[in-house]
Specification:
- The structure holds 2 protein chains of 2 kinds.
- Chain A is α/β, with parallel strands linked by helices.
- Chain A has 32 helices and 9 strands.
- In chain A, the strands form 2 sheets. In chain A, strands 2-3-1-4-5-7 form a 6-stranded mixed sheet, sandwiched between helices. A two-stranded antiparallel ribbon of chain A has the order 6-8.
- Chain B is α+β, with helices and mostly antiparallel strands.
- Chain B has a single domain, classed as Ferrous iron transport protein A (FeoA) (SH3 type barrels).
- Chain B contains 2 helices and 5 strands.
- In chain B, strands 4-3-2-1-5 form a 5-stranded antiparallel sheet.
- Classes of the chains: A alpha/beta, B alpha+beta.
- At the A-B interface, helix 3, helix 11, helix 12, helix 17 and strand 9 of A face helix 1, strand 2 and strand 4 of B.
- Bound molecules: guanosine-5'-diphosphate and magnesium ion.
- Magnesium ion binds next to helix 1 of chain A.
């Protein structure tokens, strides 16, 4: 069986990832803005006796190396081994897309062009003659629609056919002047029998574009001396003819002329409506004055929903786990095993699963933002504001991803060109409260505030976090990351109604991931927390209490003694010892040692915070009483000022271990992680201190 | 006149792009080149950022970048 290696290339947001999902039944992330795919991903599948290995590359408007993601694509195409390029093109915006196609064709590889979004093109009255276009470009063109799954089989057949072609003739015809110069250089290279991985014509084009890598490869070879004069001669002719000394300009002109010519010959446009669907929506959502308020209102609505709707199934889940804990204990009796299962595993996992409904609603909101095309609009609306604080407008996209999870957010910062902008964005992504922190907020807000305020408070927490992040950006920009502003140029995709399936895939995928984490990582962590809070065993102390209990004469004294014993054991467990050791650090913020421990375990993952609280506040309570819900326990054990201060700390301090590792990789040095740790912890401590003391004044 | 002087809803033709190499390449991949028609769609608050359309491509740019595009 042969393996066909395909490089998937195209401009951003043309449906590359969606197409591969349809072709290879993959589940790559799809969204309606540029910068969804930021690193290469490989999808493998088998069809008709061929193994396909398709590499989904980040989108590029043209082959440049300005941003990290563009570099990934350019370097992959230049240096990697692949059999052919699958160039995905947005049929509704074909002229601009062919600009990249011409550049790909100059690489002189086998190319197949997928004219994607055919469904939209038909609706918009764009008719493409794909055979004629194929003839002009010298490649096969196939009409596809990733959403309606049309043309998929034909695309695969074309890939196989192209793979089996013996040679690929260079077909691109530039203008006469340009071709002539190419011809000169090629014939010289032929005479000198220059060997090259790419074809000589492709090499000649690179020389004419003053390509740096090509120059580096040749300038130490003897042939360079003669070649240089020939190339210089060619430059002179081109300068004269195009009346500019900018070789990029000249090549861009050539590309534009080519695409224009191809489009005129092969594409027909029906008469257009004056105002498109996108225009109509934009006149409201992008409006100078009402645009921003509408966005804020929608965010507010999302958090209202998160709490109001989310809390309905929450009560059931809470009751269910409380019941499960009691049932386990009565089934297994008062044994160690019963305790590790009920008080450790079930309490911990239950505390995390409890918040699944809230998480789903939040992710649904983010998925809608990402798939409708609204995301880029908000980046536009906020750019002016962001700019004042030294942030790039594009930073908005990684920051919004940060509300879901920090890990993809750190990666999404790759779309920022300038390293300083990127680092700055990386530093403040943590201020955007990720989905895993939501459970903590819902728990504490639910415990301390009336239900009709809860949604507003959630909204307030998120907005405050984001504002703090932006202020932090300003501080960092003025101190650590000084520098000039980068240009802001960003495409606005058209609005698309996401299919139910796409939303379902995105949200259910994330929900499953959350549950999986609860069933594995959180389970393990909860059991660990249980052990650390139940050991070492203290037989002597237990005996002392046993004696006291036997001597006690009434029920109440016995129960009091039992409680005292449980508390004593907890405080002298490993976890208790660690907790007490760090208590002085957290005492000014109003936390007891259990909250301190919860924050510390939260460094592993934020879900562990609620799991730890679930285990710790479950253990200290009286054994014979029925277990109450977690929210009840929080309310009973923690004061309001301490609760508020806890929320503030959680808002700011370091995200989880996984995110920290990704941060370190993206930032490029462990030093930055150390800075981040110090920076966030110091900020979190100071603000929590202020919050605690202010709240105490009012209570 | 430069691009940032246009009013909302106005159309103009680009006569020169006076930007550095990178920005110019980016502009040209969006079709923002000499001779292209530009349509101003929207301004953000305080006119710091504007949305323009070239053919079917909508892009957001800051007025500091729009200044580099000469139009008539
Ligand atoms: N109508 C329509 N929409 C599509 C098609 N292919 C992709 N899309 C949408 O276009 C957007 C971009 O898709 P994506 O795969 O993320 O593009 P990429 O950036 O090229 O990987 C998403 O909103 C998709 O749902 C198609 O064939 N027809
Ligand atoms: Mg993609």
């Amino acid at each position: 069986m042969s393996v066909i290696k395909v490089a998937l290339v195209g401009q951003p947001n043309v449906g590359k990832s969606a197409l591969i999902n349809s072709v290879g039944n993959a589940r790559l992330r799809v969204g309606n803005f540029s910068g969804v795919t930021v690193k290469k991903e490989v999808v493998r599948f088998t069809r008709d006796d061929y193994d396909f290995e398709i590499t989904d590359l980040p989108g590029s408007y043209s082959l440049t190396d300005y941003t990290i993601e563009e570099r990934v694509t350019k370097h992959y195409l230049d240096d990697n081994d692949y059999d052919l390029i699958l160039n995905v093109v947005d049929s509704t915006n074909i002229e601009r897309n062919l600009y990249l196609t011409t550049e790909l064709l100059s690489l002189n590889k086998k190319v197949v062009v997928a004219l994607n979004m055919t469904d939209e093109a038909v609706k918009e009255g764009v008719h493409i003659d794909e055979n004629q276009l194929g003839k002009i470009l010298g490649v096969s063109c196939v009409k596809t629609s990733a959403v309606e799954k049309t043309g998929i089989d034909e695309l695969i057949q074309t890939l196989i056919k192209t793979y089996n072609l013996r040679e690929n003739r260079f077909h691109l015809q530039f203008s006469e002047v340009y071709e002539q110069e190419i011809c000169h250089i090629v014939s010289f290279l032929e005479e000198k029998k220059v060997q090259c991985k790419i074809s000589l014509k492709a090499l000649a084009i690179k020389l004419l574009r003053e390509d740096k890598d090509t120059y580096l490869r040749f300038h130490e070879e003897p042939v360079w001396i003669e070649l240089q004069t020939i190339v210089n001669e060619a430059y002179k002719h081109l300068y004269l003819h195009y009346d500019t000394k900018d070789l990029d300009d000249i090549f861009n002109d050539e590309k534009l002329a080519l695409t224009k010519g191809a489009v005129i010959e092969t594409v027909q446009f029906d008469k257009q409506e004056k105002q498109t669907f996108t225009d109509k929506i934009d006149s409201l959502l992008m409006h100078q004055f009402v645009g921003l308020p509408i966005f804020l209102f929608m965010m507010w609505g999302l958090f209202q929903l998160t709490f109001e709707v989310g809390s309905i199934p929450m009560d059931w889940i809470d009751a269910f786990f409380a019941l499960l804990i009691d049932a386990t204990k009565s089934f297994l009796g008062d044994t160690e095993l019963a305790s590790v299962i009920a008080d450790g595993a079930i309490a911990g996992v239950g505390a995390v699963v409890l918040f699944l409904p809230n998480i789903i609603i939040l992710f649904l909101g983010i998925a809608l933002l990402e798939t409708t095309g609204y995301m880029s609009r908000v980046a536009f609306l906020l750019d002016g504001f962001f700019h004042k604080f030294g942030l790039h407008g594009k930073s908005f996209i990684p920051l919004v991803s940060g509300f879901g999870c920090s890990v993809p957010a750190y990666m999404a910062a790759r779309t920022l060109k300038n390293d300083r902008d990127r680092l700055l964005t990386l530093f403040i992504i943590g201020f955007m409260s990720c989905g895993a922190r939501l459970p903590i907020y819902v728990l504490f807000v639910g415990a301390f505030f009336a239900e009709h305020h809860a949604g507003n408070l959630l909204f307030l927490i998120y907005i405050t976090g984001a504002l703090l992040g932006i202020i932090a950006a300003k501080v960092l920009k003025m101190t650590a990351f000084k520098g000039d502003d980068e240009p802001f140029v960003m495409e606005m995709p058209k609005y698309r109604l996401p299919s139910f399936k796409l939303i379902w895939h995105t949200v259910s995928g994330q929900a499953m991931m959350y549950l999986k984490k609860a069933g594995t990582f959180i389970l393990l962590a909860s059991v660990l927390v249980w052990f650390a809070s139940n050991y070492p065993k203290l037989p002597e102390i237990e005996q002392q209490y046993q004696v006291k209990i036997e001597q006690a004469d009434n029920e109440r004294a016995i129960s009091a003694l039992n409680n005292e014993l449980a508390q004593y054991k907890l405080e002298h467990s490993y976890l208790g010892i660690i907790g007490h050791a760090s208590e002085p650090f957290f005492a000014p913020l109003g936390y007891d040692w259990r909250m301190a421990i919860a924050l510390e375990t939260g460094l592993a993952a934020k879900e562990v915070v609620v799991a730890t609280l679930g285990v710790l506040y479950g253990l200290g309570e009286e054994q014979d009483e029925e277990s109450s819900g977690l929210i009840e326990k929080i309310r009973a054990n923690i004061s309001l000022p301490a609760g508020i201060s806890f929320i503030v700390f959680v808002m700011i301090y370091l995200p989880c271990l996984a995110a920290s590792m990704v941060f370190m990789r993206e930032a490029g040095s462990w030093k930055y992680l150390a800075y981040l740790f110090v920076f966030t912890t110091a900020t979190a401590w100071s603000l929590s201190f202020i919050a605690f003391n202010t709240a105490q004044l009012f209570t | 006149m430069t691009l940032d002087n246009l009013k909302k809803g106005q159309t103009a033709v680009v006569i020169a792009v006076n930007a550095g190499k990178e920005l110019k390449n980016r502009f040209s991949s969006f079709g923002l080149v000499k001779g292209a028609y530009v349509y101003t769609e929207e301004y953000s608050l305080a006119k710091k950022t504007m949305e323009i359309r070239i053919n079917k491509t909508r892009i957001a740019i800051r007025s500091s970048e729009a200044e580099k595009v000469e139009v008539v």
